[in-house]
Write a structure and sequence with these properties.
Blueprint: E1 2-5, H1 11-22, E2 26-31, H2 34-41, E3 46-50, H3 56-63, E4 69-74, H4 90-111, E5 115-124, H5 137-156, E6 160-167, E7 170-171, E8 186-187, H6 188-200, E9 205-208, H7 210-219, H8 224-234
Helix pairs in contact: 1-6, 3-4, 4-5
Length: about 240
Amino acid sequence: MKILITGATSGIGEQLALQYAQQGHDVVACGRNKHKLHSLSVHKNIQACQFDTTKLDEIKHATESFTQLDCVVLNAGTCEYIDDAKNFDSELFARVINTNLVSLGYCLDALLNKIKPQGQLVIVSSSVTYLALPRAQAYGASKAGVSYLAKSLAIDLKDIDVSLVHPGFVNTPLTDKNDFSMPMAINATKAADYIIKGVAKRRKEIHFPRRFTFILKLLTLLPFTAWLKIAKGLSR
């Protein structure tokens, strides 16, 4: 298979690129970090492709030569928190929405028509979409949009299978900045394992680790007023 992966220079994306290449697939590893892309490209079966996902012209120019992709994994994203909701940081909010959601639209514009019939589109969101969480106004809103977008695409794309990924906590350079505990966190290698297995089975939703995501899904059954009391306790 020929697989294009965005956000491939660190974390889950990097592990996906390495593992798919080790399995013998042809991988297009995409990202902004030129030096990291170079180190990936020395691996057999990995081709580097540099662009900024927030710039449509860059994406189109960098990927114009690619055709007949078997699978596109849209994984690039960021995470920032709003520490003072009353003094709302609109610049941070716009930055996160643009990086996580608007840029996804740019990637779809540039890449959807390059996926061959019966190919696959994989969109990485987050389990934060299951429940409203403290400080997650920007990140959660962006990922909620990502999940809705993926589900809507799954309805309208007739000849492409869409898989939506809802990871729990994963230890990556991005989450290393978190100043709170991350229950049941797994490493990026394990996260990539879950995704690769789910994509192979063409699952519509891939969520992991299962014990953690099942707990979150059970909590969504609570009335919002009940969850609100719990969440307010978490934010103290």
